[in-house]
Amino acid sequence: MPDRAARPEGCGHHTIAPRSGTAFTLDKGQFLVVTDPEGEQVADLLAYRRDDLDEVISSGRTLDYASRIYLTTGDPIYSNRSNVLLRIIADTVGRHDFLLTPCSADTFRIIYGDADPHRGCFGNLAAALAAFGIPPDRIPTAFNIFMNVTVDGRTGDLKVEPPLSRAGDAIVFEAMADLVIGLTACSALQSNNYAFKPIRYEVVPAGRWPPSA
User: Fold this and answer.
1) Mean residue pLDDT across the chain
2) Does the reported pTM lie above 0.90?
């Protein structure tokens, strides 16, 4: 698992403000480290193949091939064309969600009854990904980092519980292709134990993981 104190030399940290999002490129072989700096904060992750934006991570294919819903160290994240776009290589939490869609204005209107809803992770991702020519209708189910969704084995009921992540917990992905990444600090109250906090990320050059002690 990643050492919470270890940080590769020469790699800057980026902070995503609460209830916002960003998009950036990730080259094949590079590593993406996503950290929860304060604890109990979810981050929605999307990855598109840069040379063909119609290829994107797929919840259905990934969970089908894994035969389980909770992914962690060693697990690949497949695309809609059954290619591996990302691989989880380190994880200090071990509980993330790949079932629920990014929260949106509709989420807040339908589930929470908000009359003037926030645009949510969906809106934040759409705004950030527009610069790469990715329209809103091409946003699929995200990999919801640190999100803690439980499933009742008898009824199938889903319940969103507080994230298990503590301050400094992190997950590390290796890019298996040249990618466009969308990443948020989640906007849904229930997902983040009713507090909005930032998410931190860094891109580590190929061959630079794990960092030296």
Assistant:
1) 93
2) yes
